[in-house]
Amino acid sequence: MLKKDKEKVFGGEWTEDSMRFFLESKSHDGTDVDYINILKAYQYMTADTFAEFITFFKEEGHNVSAKNLDGQSAMAVIASHAPGKPYSDALKAAGAE
Question: Taking all residues of the chain, what is their mean pLDDT, rounded to a whole number?
Answer without folding.
Answer: 87
